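Apologies for my clumsy wording, but can you show me some protein sequence, whichever is easiest, together with the matching structure tokens, please?
=====
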Amino acid sequence: MASMEGTVALVTGATGGLGKAVATGLAREGALVAVVGRSAARAEEAMADIRSLVPGALLEPLACDLSDQSSIRAAAGGFLARHDSLHVLVNAAGVFRKERHITADGLELTFATNVMAYFVLSNLLQDALKNAATAGPRTSRIVNIASRYGNTKLDFDDLQTAHGTYSYLRSTPPTMLARVLLTQEFAERLSGSGVVANAVHPGLVKNTSLLQDVGGPFRWVTNTFGAPAEKAADTPLWLATAPETASVSGKLWAKRKELPTPGMGSDPEARHRLWDACAQLTRMP
């Protein structure tokens, strides 16, 4: 990894698992890392853990409920009040829920957290990402944690799993494809700005908090066959820091190798349609 001294990074899902491992890696390379947690207390706890591994790490807490658009806007506003530039944005937070819940915005919780949070936060911070790219020699990076095992297509008539029987196997896989599509659309819209966007399939990650709402078999498989978070963080950190990935954008990666995008990932109209659907569901000006 390249030295990140003098840079600013923001990592969601940084209070545990893969997100914390990525935040730790960025801090180890010298970046100032905004550690996003559901509460300030959880962010502070994660910061203490990171500093135990990286003494002197430059960290700041950022409380944000990523299922709530007003909380996302408040968190982004607080961050931008302190920083006009952002060099790395890692969207690593996600949920895997077995029951359907509705958020304060009237959205299904899995869709709101796994898709809308990526859309809203990245849009709110894109000017800071552009500023960082303009002010220095570095390319700014958006790294979105996704999966190669998302659905092959999205049901645009039921993006929030409102019809039929709800389950995590119906609700979560489409959000992974949606993350890839949004990554591609961000890459297209940010082309020429000095900001690149890529998605990562990290594979199974041991002891992930993502499965805290899920039964034993799923946890057993993940903890038995998954990789430690520190190993799974290698490709996201490579995309966030390496000189050789500075000009790569709109791709899906695993183990530092490009993957074919699943299903609708080869259809530009699908990502345009998803972008428009997300825009209609936000309360952003």
About this structure: The beta strands are 8-11, 32-37, 59-63, 88-91, 140-145, 195-200, 252-254, 257-259. The first strand starts at residue 8 and ends at 11. The chain has one domain: 8-281.
